[in-house]
Amino acid sequence: MKRSVFCGVSLDGFLARPNDSFDFLFAGGAKPHDFEEFYASVDVVVLGRRTFEVVLKLGHMSLYGKKPVVVLSSHPLDFSTVKNAAVEQMSGEPTDIVKRLEARGFQHAYIDGGVTIQRFLAAGLVDRLTVTRVPVLIGAGIPLFGSVPGDITLRHVATRAYKDGLVQSEYEIGGGAEER
Ligand SMILES: NC(=O)c1ccc[n+]([C@@H]2O[C@H](COP(=O)([O-])OP(=O)(O)OC[C@H]3O[C@@H](n4cnc5c(N)ncnc54)[C@H](OP(=O)(O)O)[C@@H]3O)[C@@H](O)[C@H]2O)c1
């Protein structure tokens, strides 16, 4: 099963402000370029609990459509208020999550949420990373990247610059962290 990350960040690397607002991603009418095409290619969405809570609070769960959404948390979650989405919970090491999803026949997982992405990256379980950088510095917030147990080498696939100032870079990752 392929595992992909597709996210937007401020130029200084934040997924959201400290209060979870991500207004800066859409300033000036910018759009998450090529997201629809990417989303059409995935068959399961894996969300960190905090991202799930933000999406739920905004009433945006229906944006996932009919695709199964797996929310990761080590605590019991209440899905009773979730409408128009197929949601379930999993927890464990990223490698176990991947095995469980593969056993169910999923082909392409969309991994989302800062800490969640960081855990999958550290475990060598992200195959493709597409980051759209928005030309704004916000100074503080929820980071896309964090500490890594060793260097993670990426292969640059393509970078696209858009008229609205967004710069989207796509990388392939061959494996996990290498010892320094
Ligand atoms: N700009 C973008 O494209 C973008 C994309 C995604 C998210 N965001 C934003 O990023 C923020 C959330 O990111 P975040 O880094 O704070 O958190 P996150 O990754 O969404 O959620 C972290 C939580 O997920 C759970 N988790 C992750 N991996 C797990 C595993 N293997 N097993 C069990 N539980 C696991 C843990 O929940 P428990 O503590 O319950 O155990 C952990 O505390 C939000 O503001 C969201 O809106 C922005």
Q: Nutshell version of this structure?
A:
The chain is an alpha/beta fold and 180 residues long.
Write up this protein.
This protein has helices at residues 35-41, 49-57, 94-103, 114-122; strands at 2-10, 14-16, 44-48, 68-72, 86-90, 108-112, 128-134, 142-143, 154-161, 167-173. It is an alpha/beta fold and 180 residues long. It has a domain at 9-123 and 137-144: 3-Layer(aba) Sandwich (Dihydrofolate Reductase, subunit A). The strands form 2 sheets. Strands 5-4-3-6-1-7-10-9 form an 8-stranded mixed sheet, sandwiched between helices. The chain has a two-stranded antiparallel sheet with strand order 2-8. Residues 7-8, 15-16, 20, 22, 25, 48-51, 54, 72-75, 91-92, 94, 97, 112-116, 119, 142 line the site of NADP nicotinamide-adenine-dinucleotide phosphate.
Task: Give me the secondary-structure topology.
Elements: E1 2-10, E2 14-16, H1 35-41, E3 44-48, H2 49-57, E4 68-72, E5 86-90, H3 94-103, E6 108-112, H4 114-122, E7 128-134, E8 142-143, E9 154-161, E10 167-173
Parallel strand pairs: 1-6, 1-7, 3-4, 3-6, 4-5
Antiparallel strand pairs: 2-8, 7-10, 9-10
**Main sheet summary:** 8 strands, mixed
Secondary-structure element order, as H and E?
EEHEHEEHEHEEEE
- Beta-strand level of the residues, as a percent range? 25-35%
Poorly predicted sequence stretches spanning 5 or more consecutive residues: none
Largest beta sheet: strand ordering: 5-4-3-6-1-7-10-9
- The radius of gyration over CA amounts to 16 Å
Bound ligands, each once: NADP nicotinamide-adenine-dinucleotide phosphate
